[in-house]
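Sanity check

After download, print the first record. It should look like this:
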Amino acid sequence: MKRIIKLVLVISLIVFIPIFLINFKVPEPINILVVGVDAGDYNNINAPKRTDTIMLVHLETKEKGVYIYSIPRDTRVSLNGEHQKINAVHAVGGIQLLKQKLEDMLNININYFVKIDYKAFRELVDAVEGVDVVIPHDMNYDARDIKIHFKKGEKVHLDGVKAEQFIRWRKNNDGTGYAMGDLGRISTQQEFLVKISEKFKSPLIIFRLPKVMKVISSNIKTDLSKVKIMRYSLYYLGIDKNNIKTKVMSGQPEYINSISYYIAKYNEDYDFLQNFGNIDKTSKRNIKIKILNSTNKNGLAARYKKIFEEKGYDVVEIGNYNKRFNKTVIYCYDEEISKEIKDILDCENVKLVGSL
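Expected structure tokens:
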């Protein structure tokens, strides 16, 4: 009797799903902030957690495409008037502050967020019954909370536990690791996501979706409703991996005051970020500002640097001018851009120039 009931359910799903998809309204394109949080403080499980992974995902429903933009965890940002790594933003102000920081930085609108920890990640991978990968490097690392041991070139089926080991690996016990450091790990994570997406090409994913939904509702924090999650999941069934585009935020690693940062050059990613919405190349987030103090008052340039950065501008340099002026002068190449700067400085003395 149980077998008959199961058979009826399977036949019903096979018949119902195609009919449902034929009458399925194409959902609207959305931007989602996806963050993976680290293990946190072992002695205080309620302590704020830093973000170990930060990704922006755009679902382009018209062309059934997915765009994944990864932000390195060491990206240097301004936070409360000081420079910090972007992975500290969540620990300071939670997901909303991180969302606001990225919106201001990249001049995009983020519609929803998904926050996942390692436990939820393991369960999610198990819910889709894992993926097969070829290990790109020898991985041998032992820590308090994780032990990672894979051999380069071997094909491994990654269940939840092994998948966590695979995406968290940065370096070995002897210090060797990805040639590009954390950027290499980000590329591995993106490739892993593509592998996961390929699971949705199988008709069997229909029968795994209830498990996926259970994991999401129980262990993943998101402001996406269950209806929306199911709607987008069904819409992207069978997605071609060629329709999934990935990119790591442009920039370069740099030591500043003995601290390793990633200096972002996201203005170079304009073409890719256009997929996340209409972005103006002359947006204040893409404008470079230099502030020179031409008075006898010390610290004036640093003070205004803080003001501009809090408003989302990128101040690339401050210093002292070699002459003294009684009035502030704004040198700008665009009249529209100069308007807000005039308001900030309460200054009408603007000189338009062809280039700076």
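If your output differs, re-run the checksum step. Summary of this record's structure: Residues 287-352 form one domain.
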